């Protein structure tokens, strides 16, 4: 295969080749206590055999591995060998969230989106898994990134096996919590816990009023917290019959409101609260106050244009429009009597991809880190840190024409109390059609990178990832 050459200035431009090399050009000094592996994933290609995929959600998943050791940094990338990746060609592509198969209604009717396993990668209990919203995970070799196969956790995942893309790992117990949306025989969310032996346990379920989109949740000491927004399949028959793409049949209907569900981790009764409509995708973290109030941090988007406006920016991905990064970091409080209120945390800062020091998962966290746009509707070009104790804001902005992706936290074992560590992000160098790994001190962002590692090629922006300490 050869690298795509069209529109290399786009952060989403393809990387169709697979690489395995030691990074030769490192500027600055990699901290001595930063040793481990950074995994990132996203759509590595958005065109197959002359077929332009209609949405970035539909691109074949490609995992990148940055191994940080005493000798420097090693890079490796591999495509997840899903059914779609191995079969897609000039003659055939699968249906996606925003991609219709050639052949019209007949070719698309009754077909669910192909599992392209491109949204997140998580390491847990000795395993590494690539994740996608509406299907089973794929198990990968943590060292070689070889695809071992689809994972059903010894049969615990039934039917299509939806296992969502944003699991949470409790910092105290090491247990992994996640959920999946099931549509048959009725729409519902089913919750799971995976223990340190690798066994998957079913927790509670709660019904969805109608087929809805729920991308993320948060975890507290006692609950899984869901904010299910009214992003719904408003025209399900058109989607089912293949008359329109899945995303084309989705709508944001604020009159339906948002349903907040508190699912007990011990399997007790689910508490559901109705409130005014939110429009969000990512929940960062949550915790419980001594009086029982649940606090959850989210990135909330303006509902102007609803799903259609937000989704358009992900379809028209070739430029540097960053409309999808225009969210507002907020703290939502859910009192014991069901009152819901929210407060802004980073006013005037359009952002997405919130992250924390995961040593504080399911507890009050000292700081939040986001990828932000320095101008309205601009590309994400700044990594911002918000210190919750002092309210101070720090940031690192890259050069004009460059962009950054999600900042992943790597903990410094010597700074556990303060929550200090490093932020790892991939910077796209714009017209240079290259990328680099950027390492920032989480408590000194404005001082700039402590080290950068120049890749030999462009790396697509990607979605999410994880850092695993050595």
From TrEMBL:
Would I find Oxidoreductase among this entry's keywords? Answer: yes
Enzyme class, UniProt record, top EC level: oxidoreductase
How is the cofactor bound, in the record's words?
Answer: Binds 1 Fe(2+) ion per subunit.
Needed cofactors, names only, are: Fe(2+)
Provide this UniProt record's keywords sorted from A to Z: Dioxygenase, Iron, Metal-binding, Oxidoreductase
**Record keywords: Membrane included?**
no
Q: What EC designation does it have?
A: 1.13.11.-
Q: Which InterPro entries match?
A: Carotenoid_Oase
PANTHER family the record matches: BETA-CAROTENE DIOXYGENASE, CAROTENOID 9,10(9',10')-CLEAVAGE DIOXYGENASE 1
Concerning its family, UniProt says: Belongs to the carotenoid oxygenase family.
Entry protein name: Dioxygenase
Organism annotation: Gordonia phosphorivorans
What lineage does the source organism belong to? Answer: Bacteria, Bacillati, Actinomycetota, Actinomycetes, Mycobacteriales
